[in-house]
Amino acid sequence: MGDSDVVGQVRDRYAAAARAAMSTGRRPIDILDDLDGGGSGYCGGDGCCSGTAETEVFGSALYDADQAGQVPELAVTASLGCGNPTAVAELNPGERVLDLGSGGGLDVLLSARRVGRDGFAYGVDMTDEMLALARENAAKAGATNVEFLKGRIEQVPLPDAAVDVVISNCVINLSVDKPKVLDEMFRVLAPGGRVGVSDVVAEDYLTPADRTERGSHVGCVAGALSRQEYIDGLTAAGFTDIEVRFTHEVAPQMHGAIVRAVKPA
Known about the structure:
Helix 1 runs parallel beside helix 7. Strands 1, 2, 3, 4, 5, 6, 7 and 8 form an 8-stranded mixed sheet that branches. 36% of the residues lie in helices and 23% in strands. By secondary structure, it is α/β, with parallel strands linked by helices. It has 10 helices and 8 strands. It is globular, with a radius of gyration of 17 Å. The chain has helices spanning 3-24, 28-35, 65-68, 73-77, 85-88, 106-115, 128-141, 178-188, 208-213, 227-237; strands spanning 96-100, 120-125, 146-150, 163-169, 189-202, 225-226, 240-251, 254-262.
């Protein structure tokens, strides 16, 4: 499968999930499981998106009740993430935040509340349907310090040094050009800015073929970087103070992970 095929497949699948979520109120994770015949494609052969709220490793179960109560219900149910980057990034009042692959807008809306009226939160997504869902959720939340932009995370539609923090939730692994994504993160951050990302990361000894055996590229598994590949990529982009820490297993030897880094001042 070529890069353009992967991009198209990712866009189509998440567009279908957003449309169904808006029309039925069902969780996109459940919708993707249906599209994959019970979870074989989105989360790998073990169906890691299925199960109870206590056992799920993707989606809304990764947010506590207090956070869920701060935003519209559909924003929470629309989550397809593998972590909680708003907690990872430790956001402060007045900061400018960018969410790469913002989906239904949950992390943008939570970020907007955290940074307050003097701060701002951007979301970038390439899928029209997800952008429509996010804007609907923002309107329901009455959020005025947010903006959702159409674009690819490999070419962010913001100027240099536009934000203080970059977050992302299980999206970078979907990119077909991860070095470009890391370069874009560095470019849009102001000096001294930081990265607080949740992503799926492989153990270092797993080869690309091993990762493919554990799930599809569009399912956040086959395209995942290893821990050392993440560290090397962030270093090459210019980041320092890099941390890649596993939090929970999403497939054999594949983990949800916290990724932190700093752009030198």
